[in-house]
């Protein structure tokens, strides 16, 4: 089930222990932040407990995972983190695929990243509704509040990737389409799965193909009020476009700047990126466009990063082959950290 490439004995430790056993099978382990891989991660099995108090804890008695004892495999992960949970769409041993066999769950989950450094976000495992408080309990997974588009599976080189790609057709700034080479929005199978649009919580800010970035930057600047001034040179890497915040007002969804829309399969179906997710305050008086300009010739043309996803709900419907995006939860006067953790079959993980 884990698609192990081979088995063997532990020969580099004097005593057998977790991560070092005899007659054990191996697969590749990964540190996604460092982009580090190791071919000696043991396939193991144990009881997985899912949930957080006071929610009802749910257990999976024979959950398959990998174990590696090398400290360097944890480098650059957040403080206190001791492992990585895989939520990919195709590998059989990812969390949604293993738990999907339990009748209380399904191969569907919602991800909501908190913008706070002190409060947790949440992953809802299983079918919706997904509840948060504002202070009343509300369902943030209501279909009329989500924009859905097709989930795509990509093959990078000779390997099928577990990364999430999705269908999009254009980018709008302040309601106007920006000029794009739209062939770069389609996965190029002839060039081993390059181009297209993917999602990655491994990277902090959305990466745009250089030509895409230049078009978005120009449209964004042109749509700003004339009294907003550009700061040159940009004061902080990796940002290439920065502004004085003196004349930028604040709203309940962040800085009052032109919205950026990721348009899916038709103009009326789009995901809106508001000021809280498009600009970042880098100093007392300076804000920067929170996107990275990068040559993506042999990579996805767009990679949606964590900052743009904060306080937005994403619903991954694997059986339905679709993904849903909410706009900022700040519009509903709530956040990802205000989730309801008292429902057994929608257990925060």
Automatic annotation (TrEMBL):
MF (Gene Ontology): aspartic-type endopeptidase activity
GO BP of this protein: proteolysis
Residue intervals of the Peptidase A1 domain: 1-326
InterPro entries xref list: Aspartic_peptidase_A1 (IPR001461), PEPTIDASE_A1 (IPR033121), Peptidase_aspartic_dom_sf (IPR021109), TAXi_C (IPR032799), TAXi_N (IPR032861)
Main location: secreted
Domain of life: Eukaryota
Family that this chain belongs to: Belongs to the peptidase A1 family.
Protein's name in the database: Peptidase A1 domain-containing protein
